[in-house]
């Protein structure tokens, strides 16, 4: 089994590329989606987050919008938040691997792969990239996104050029979708996974 990490900064098109791999028959683990699920369902986690960020929890429910606004303001509390979440995501990832034990390859969409030092756990790393102007326009088109919030997110992320330099493969998404799909197909062929379609 080949374990492939898919990463890239905000607004680069990771989810779109991950869907293209899924369409080619490669199971995808979406770390952000798992975080959202855990934050919605794990009562113990929600209670622990409430101790760190009281304003983000009301009546036992986590307000992710409030949390996203408050967490970057305190690096110390943000680190504690990540220490609560990451072990739970790892459990889900291990379950995903076990559930797909016979797959020839698995793709793991992990936005902060390099920032958390996790690249060593994977056989190959793919970085999704786009021109800065396109990245910014995409990110600012998201609901609730502001220029200030985007700048705060980018400040926590490794620069795109550094991610590109550390990748086994780079997928540029500042062209049309068919060109992006061809890049995905080429990588699948390069890894000898074309039969998994």
UniProtKB/TrEMBL annotation:
| One CC-aspect GO term | cytoplasm
The record, for NCBIfam families, names: dephospho-CoA kinase
Localization per Swiss-Prot or TrEMBL: Cytoplasm
Q: Which family does it belong to?
A: Belongs to the CoaE family.
Single Gene Ontology MF annotation: ATP binding
In Swiss-Prot or TrEMBL terms, this protein is called Dephospho-CoA kinase
The catalysed reaction is: 3'-dephospho-CoA + ATP = ADP + CoA + H(+)
């Amino acid at each position: 089994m080949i374990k492939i990490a898919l990463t890239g900064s905000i607004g680069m098109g990771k989810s779109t590329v991950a869907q293209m791999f899924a369409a080619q028959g490669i199971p995808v683990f979406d770390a952000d989606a798992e975080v959202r699920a855990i934050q919605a369902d794990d009562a113990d986690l929600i209670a622990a987050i409430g101790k760190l960020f009281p304003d983000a929890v009301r009546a036992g429910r986590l307000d992710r919008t409030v949390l996203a606004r408050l967490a970057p303001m305190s690096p110390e509390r943000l680190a504690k938040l990540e220490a609560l979440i990451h072990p739970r995501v790892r459990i889900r990832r291990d379950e995903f691997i076990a559930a797909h034990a016979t797959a020839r390859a698995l793709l793991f969409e992990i936005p902060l792969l390099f920032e958390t030092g996790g690249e060593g756990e994977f056989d190959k790393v793919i970085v999704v990239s786009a021109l800065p102007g396109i990245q910014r326009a995409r990110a600012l088109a998201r609901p609730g996104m502001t220029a200030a919030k985007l700048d705060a997110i980018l400040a926590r992320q490794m620069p795109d050029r550094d991610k590109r330099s550390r990748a086994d493969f780079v997928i540029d998404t500042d062209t049309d979708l068919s060109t992006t799909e061809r890049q995905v197909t080429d990588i699948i062929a390069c890894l000898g996974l074309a039969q998994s379609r």
